Amino acid sequence: MMRRSGVAVPADRELSRIRSHGVKGARMTDTPAEDDLRYEVRDHIGYIVFNRPHARNALTFAMYERLAEICEAVNKSGSVKVLVLSGAGDKAFASGTDISQFRAFKTPQDALDYEARIDRVLGTLEETRVPTIAAIAGACTGGGAGIAACCDIRIGATTARFGFPIARTLGNCLAMSNLSRLAALIGPARIKDVIFTARLVEAREALHIGLISEMVEPGELMSRAEALARLIAGHAPLTLRATKDALRRLRPNLSRQDGEDLVLMCYMSRDFREGMDAFLNKRTPQWTGE
Fold first, then answer.
1. pLDDT tens across 125-147, in order?
2. How far is it, in rounded angstroms, from Cα 255 to Cα 122?
3. Residue 215 neighbours by CB under 8 Å, 6+ apart
4. What is the residue extent of each domain of the chain?
5. pLDDT at residue 105, as a whole number
6. Local structure of residue 277 (DSSP, 8 states)
7. What is the C-alpha separation between 234 and 225, in angstroms, rounded?
8. DSSP code at position 60
9. How much of the chain exceeds pLDDT 70, in percent?
10. What are the C-alpha distances in Å from 55 to residues 90, 122, 135, 220, 270?
11. Which of 9, 19, 72, 151 shows a CA-CA span of 20 to 30 A to 211?
């Protein structure tokens, strides 16, 4: 609920109101995405929950779009001071893009459009004017790990596991913007280690290398995230925003066209089709490098 002039207002109603005054896109309706990605505001703190626990909170395209819409709405509103992102259940924060979303890929443009969408959504999250906190329990992989990397602060439960196991599963690649963001967090050498080995980084190692700033017991995760959000919400907003923007500007300024040849090399390959078929049919892929 949002509180405006002493009245509690459902966050989605406030989101629709803000979007009708200039945030791009059609008016929000009751769609499945609103169930799959929940949003509410309490005491000036916005809570985003990836809510597909039966699928380890795998992300649909509609969920990505709703995440971007929420961030755009927060930028138009002065009410929300911090965003907290988490996953429903205890199995996953978010396990990446739902593989079934890739079945429609037929042309090179499909691959470029997908990466452009993800780049736009993650960029919108990263550029949100308020601090963002990822409260991570369980698997945080693929697109879920990309979302966590966009957040300003990451807190992990002892069950948290991070990674991009694409070299073992689909045979696709990360966009250069994703790699740039990760390089700023943990450095190129560790990125290569994680992607080349397709392993998942356990919470203790994530804390050691700076991927998360705190590690807590699973039952304490949300209470700690809320306490941190309340602390940050009481600080000078312009100081927080300037720090976010300045650190982002220190990174290389990449265009969406950078690395398109690499995206097409992977997504249009026989290996990608093989990886997707193997994943959906629960078998080991046979890579050929073609």
1. 999 999 999 999 999 999 999 99
2. 14
3. 155, 156, 157, 158, 160, 203, 204, 206, 207
4. 2-219+237-280
5. 82
6. H
7. 15
8. P
9. 89
10. 12, 21, 18, 24, 26
11. 72
The reported pTM is 0.88
The residue to which tokens 């629960």 are assigned:
282
* Residues 6 or more apart in contact with residue 48 via CB below 8 angstroms: 37, 38, 39, 67, 70, 83, 84, 85, 86
**What is the share, in percent, of the chain residues with pLDDT greater than 90?**
79
pLDDT the model gives residue 11: 56
3-state SS track over 196-233: HHCCCEEHHHHHHHCCCCEEECHHHHHHHHHHHHHHHH
Tell me the C-alpha to C-alpha distance, in Å, between residue 35 and each of 45, 46, 74, 75, 174.
20, 16, 19, 22, 28
Classify domain 2-219+237-280 at the CATH topology level.
2-enoyl-CoA Hydratase; Chain A, domain 1 (3.90.226)
Torsion, Cα of 167, 170, 173, 177 (10° steps): -110
Strand partners, 85: 48, 134
